[in-house]
Amino acid sequence: MLSSAAYAAATMPAHAEPISFAIFSALYTIGIPGAIANAISLVAIPALAIGGSLALGRARAPSIKASDAKSTFESSEAQVMDGIGRVRVGGLQAFGNSDGSTRARLVCRLNGPIDAVEEYYIGGREVTVDPNGDVSSPPWSKNGGSWCNWKDKPGTGGETAWSSLLSLFPDLWTSAHRVRGIAQSLTIWYNPGLSEDKYFTLYQGGIPSTEQVIRASRLYDPRTGLTAWSDNGILACAHVLRRDPAFAFGMFDWSLIASEANKADVLVATKTGTEKRARAWGIWGWETARSDVMQQLLDSIGAELRITNAGKIWFQLIDDTHVPEVEFTPDDGVELTWRSGPEAVERPNICRVTYYSPERNYESAEINLDGIAWASVEDEVSRYGPKYLDIDLPFCPSASQAQRIARRRFAQARGDTGIINTNMVGLSAWGLLYGEITLPDLGDILPVRMEAPRVDDEQGTVEIPFTVWPLLPVWNPSLDEASAPEPIPDLGYETDMISPNAPASAIQVTFPGGAGTELRIGFTLPAQEYDTAEATFRSYTGDLPNSWQGMFEGPSADAATFAYLPGSYGGLTIDARVRVFNGDDGSYYSPILHTVVGVDNTACAAPTLVSGGTSTLGSSAQLNVTVSAGELRAAYVTLESRGPTTGGIGWTPWSLVSQQNARPGQHLTFTDSRSVGTGGGDVEWRLQTLTSNGTGGPYRTLSQNVAPSS
């Protein structure tokens, strides 16, 4: 097993490669210096060195598949993985060892710094990790702790050596092992004893793999001047290109990038509501050709790289309808050489599209486009057979976004192409992409996308290849959009247990006398056999969710109706959910309750008498009862008493005997003894449930008569 680990990045000898024409031509058409243009086609290869020096001259690596990124693997060399948006990753197990009982695993996730971890998985099943690192989900939880402790570092570059590894393995791990700049996880796995059944429950297949859903890289946003997490597709393009040190900050037109970033954030209609127009999530490797990554990213958000006349880089979203940047008329010496779109026998007639699907556990998934009119040309399919256009959008996290892009791409692939020959006025198209051509004689106007002009100095002409831009109707989500794939359970954890309904409410309760506050969520579990309920919640920072946190279920884990957690959460936006376990079998989580934590001071019902009653002892009346409050909003229960006046006529005022803080279904025992003297008389007690602000409901009243003593 490896004993030390360090990610180290170095600029390696560049591997020249042909870059995509879209990027390459954009750079050269405006005369940007060749060194800068070529830089996009070169790959700087960072490497991973484990206890050794960097290896030089390795072959170009393929792109990372989404499914592969979720695996946890061991290797003496591996490329650094980077991420944008929200991703699910396993990572490189850089260190693993045991002191004979306790085992440790260090996993390098992504190039840092990352923004946050949102979800944790062990062996493919989601778990909750408490702030102290303890995994509080079954089967890992135990009384007073956990069989697994999981801690993370975001990869800021200021990391120090893990204290747990220094303590467990002082001969293997030293203060020099800092693993700086890498988002990483250290898991400590405890041994319940080889002869215990619990051992086989936890470790029958060895130490299980771990994964995380991570909010990955923080992106520079020229609109604010700050670097923060965002899944804005335009900002992601600038971020990925700037990961190559050849692309300095000053090489970008940040004002144009800011303008396009605003367009990317515009809400557009979808089949199920609205979403931002252009988002980017996904994983890429530093040894993957940067041009390949950039082209995949541009395709996934529906954009292209542009260069200003000043040689500055920016990124432009592709609209279904464009405003022309240049116009050509017959007066410009227009001469057309036509070529219609591909022959029908060759032309694609069925569109298939895949995207980075959170519904399919962050893997590449195909959208079922059956019945979507734009996605197939049935007449051609019948005549010539299916001719597929496969569109892969590995950085697109939305089925809606993927289909908007795919419709345009499919229409373009079927479109007509040609070449326009003009006089030297054609040089006005230098560095431009979109134009209009007025056809000689006919007067028809064609919207076109142009390629780089080619100049014939001897003839005094300019030749511009073009593609006719498709005329598409306005996108109608109800007709043009297929549903996203159905969410699937984590592999290997299908269950017949009934998933609970979403929690019904979330409130904050304040105990009297400065005894503190707590968050409570209420739920109703389905009628089925279970031994443990697990409720979790997460708060938000701005509009971004924090990690899920565990709660205390009550009245008991095997008969739960609510969950609570001490702390002040009033007014905060939270998500809450619940699931149940029967042994190792667990239900799926309930749907999420998304709500703002409020306060409910509606009066509660009278406390329920669970057991006990009243009695006499000599000249005293005795009370010994156990009661419970049934409402989620119950904060405390009071006991008051009164007895006969000294003269034996009438009652004394009610006086407080005691009070106890309460939770729903919690058994509270109250006792009291009140002497009435030799004359005897009646004693009454009343119990009342009160809410956070002291609002009380009806009373539970009990009485006892004490006979006069002789």
UniProtKB/TrEMBL annotation:
Keywords recorded for this protein, A-Z: Membrane, Transmembrane, Transmembrane helix
InterPro entries (UniProt xref): J_dom
Ranges for domain Tip attachment protein J: 291-414
Pfam families in the record: Phage-tail_3
Keyword Membrane: yes
Residue ranges crossing the lipid bilayer per the database entry: 26-50
Coiled-coil spans in chain: none
Biased composition (Polar residues): 701-710
Disordered: region residues: 690-710
Protein name according to UniProt: Tip attachment protein J domain-containing protein
Organism: Rhizobium daejeonense
